[in-house]
Amino acid sequence: MIHVVFNEPDVEILKKVIELDETLAGDVLLIRDDYAVGPLTGIFSPEGLEKRKEWWRTVLQGSDNENSVDDGTVNDPAVLINIKECLINNSEEELWIWAAQNKHDVCGYYWLVSQLADFQGRIHMLYLNNLPFINEKGSIFYPDWLSQIQPKEFLKAKKLARPITISEFEVDGDEWNKICDDDKMIRLLEGGKKIVQKEVNYYDTELLKFVSNDFQKANKVVNAFLNKGKETTGDAFVFWRLKELTKTNQLDVQGELKGMKIFEIKKKSVSEAGA
């Protein structure tokens, strides 16, 4: 059995689940890229993949992860090849895809399942959307991420695993192609598996609300947005948008535009902005 998740914390959680239930024994693989943001046109072609890599190089420039595009840290195509080889070489092998109700997991699911139609009947889905779980305090909650679920709670969830049907492969494959062809930069989850797309500046207005009239480190602005924003995304993307906003006439900057803890920003005064 092969398990696939879409967030690094989910790997350790699922390994703990496997320790509790040996019937789930198998490798846990991670799809690392965040397909809820960035260009997707021709994503499975060399040209489309390189376009996406180049975009990520720009986004990650100056961050702690700026080399992850080229150092092999993020290499989802290699993971996909590994999955296919395992399924081809062992006709009894199955793949279980685990996803929670968030845009990151759902977009990752679309990316993956669009390439696995040849293995229909052996690809199972566990989409834990709108399902109640018990947290550590004994209260019922609806998780947004797999890592929020206690390992023992997964033992009930595993009963929901089901093969992805032929029609789902067709419908979801078509949906993924449509998402890619729309060529927008931001994807949001409206419910179920419905993805809507927005322009690259979608988060900017909300992000600017967390910039004060006094200088503060960029990381404080990013963290405030991630913790309090109505709709958020990954910190790398938010940091990049903040740097892009410094190119407008809305913010004052001091320090080099590198790491989040290196430069400071504040709103321009009305007189400065109008000058």
Order of helices and strands: EHEHHEHEEEHEHEEHEHHEEH
Shape: globular
Poorly predicted runs are none
Content-based structural category: alpha/beta
Distance between the termini: 64 Å
Q: What is the beta-strand fraction?
A: 15-25%
- Considering DSSP H and I runs of 4 or more, what fraction of the residues is helical? 25-40%
Number of strands: 12
Please give the count of helices: 10
What does this molecule look like?
With about 280 residues, the chain is an alpha/beta fold. The chain folds into 2 domains: about 1-180, no CATH class; about 205-275, Arc Repressor Mutant, subunit A. It is about 40% helix and about 15% strand. The protein contains 10 helices and 12 strands. Strands 2-1-3-4-7 form a 5-stranded mixed beta sheet, sandwiched between helices. Helix 1 crosses helix 5 (about 150-155), helix 4 (about 105-115) packs across helix 6 and helix 8 (about 220-230) crosses helix 9 (about 235-245). The chain is globular, with a radius of gyration of 21 Å. The mean pLDDT is about 90.
